[in-house]
Every structure is written in structure tokens, then in C-alpha cells.
Amino acid sequence: MKTDFRAVLLAGGRGSRMASVLRGLPKALVPIGGAPLLALQLSRLRLHGCTQAVVVGGHGIHHLRSALKAFSHSSDVVLLEETSGTLPAVLTGLGALGSEPGPIVAMNADTIVDVDLALCIAAAPAWAAVTAVLTELPTGQNEGLVILAATGQILAFEEADRSGLDLTPAPPGSSGLPSRERSLSLSNCGLYVVDRERLLGDVPRLRTLGLCWEGHALVHYRRRGLLAGVAPPVHYVLDVGTPARFKRACADAALIHQICGFRQDAFESHSRLA
Q: What pLDDT shows up at residue 166?
């Protein structure tokens, strides 16, 4: 299944824990099987039907600019600079996409997720400002467990937040995926379907909350009952954020290239021409 959508790709991470691997490069350019992670992610987005991608960078923006010239096959990839945090980065990316109707996906450039993006988009409930893609698989991310109600509403991001659970029923709607009778503890994949118009309309309020997409914006929408979660089949997920997980990604390089629909020969040819 495939659908047309646009994407915001967050590629600004400094990757301090990956300093020994990155050697000054931004985390989005870590090489997996000879290909930069950002090239793999863009290949995967195109494979699933992405018509425009906005890459929002920060640390090492000049490296990202050079890399995009070398491996981007399309003028529909735009690079923007936003150094002040992940929440401003998302808002910057959404603003750059233009006002054309259609679904929007926001994702962390350093997390590889093998999931049907068209299914995630179709499953996002209409009442949600943001819908997070969740999984029972370990992701390697650090935001803890996500508590998902049978309604499709996210109740909390981690077990430590149980005292602050908002048990107010979600607005009418469902995730579009098989419902579960009880709340589930799941992991966040770092992949979101977002309501662009609603978020941009909330910019004045969102900018007062802080700089963190997960820790500020998503908590804000959870408290308002506007944060949904869907748990489609996820076949592989890996946050390439530590040397150990980078080592695993390198061992899984052939699988990751397959997931992303990436052709090394085409990449090398295009890089030489660039």
C-alpha cells in the first residue's frame, strides 16, 4: 500500500554519545553499509510515496548541505537550518511545506522503522493533532514506555508519569487499527503523523512551552486529549544513537538497505556525477 504524503525529517542531532564514530559529522550522516543514514531515509520515504521532504538540520549544517547535493535525486528535498531545539525544528519544517492539503509525516532522521507508512497515515484518527507510531519492539530510544488506551489516546509517555495520567475519554474516533481492551505499554518509534494546520495554528502557545518536541509539544497535546497512538506491524526499528546501536546497524546493513529500497550502485553513480 502506498499513498502520497509530505515529510519533515529532523536531522539536527549532535550525537554527543557518537562522537567517536561521527568525527564531527551530524548524526544523520552516520554511514550504514557505505551509505549515509540520511540517504537511506530519503530513499525509504520515496519508496513509500513521499512527494516532498523538508530536512531540518542544526549541528553540521554545512555537512548536510554537501551531502544532499551528492545524493539527493530530486529538487523536492529542501534543507533548512534550525538550531534551537526539536520543537522549533518541527514547526520550521511544517511551515516550509506550504499549505497544500494532504498528510504530513514527521520523523527522526536517526531512527530506522520498517512499517507501512500508508497504513499509519490511514490509521491516524481525525481528532488527533499528532499520532505517534508505537511498537512492542525495543527501539533503543530513551523516552520510556508509552501508555496507549483502547480508544487510541495516549495516556502517558513513560511509567514514571503514571501519577499524571489523564484518564478523560478521548474525543470520538478510533485508530483505525484493531482495538485492544486494555491499555498497553509500548515504545515510541520517533515517527508521527501530524495535523499541520492545527500545529501551525498553535504556534504562539507551543513556542511558550519549551524546545523539546516529545517533552513539551506531545505532553501538551496529551493533556488536551489530542495525542493519539497507533500500533501497526513494525518489523524492524532501531534508533542509531549510541556506538553499540551503530554497530548493530552496520551488522544489519543489508537488511536496512532493503527496508529503505536503497541501491548502492545508483547512489555511487549519482555521487560521482555530483
A: 47
Distance of alpha carbon 15 from alpha carbon 143, whole angstroms: 16
What is the rounded CA–CA span in Å between residue 174 and residue 171? 9
Distant-in-sequence, close-in-space partners of 81: CB < 8 Å, separation ≥ 6: 56, 57, 58, 61
CATH code of domain 5-267: 3.90.550.10
The domain segmentation of the chain, as residue ranges, is: 5-267
> Which residue has 509517555 as its cell numbers?
157
What are the grid coordinates assigned to 112, written together? 530506522
Tell me if 109 sits within 8 A of 38, measured CB to CB.
yes
pLDDT digits (tens, 9 = 90+) for 205-258: 999 999 999 889 999 999 999 999 999 999 999 999 888 899 999 999 999 999
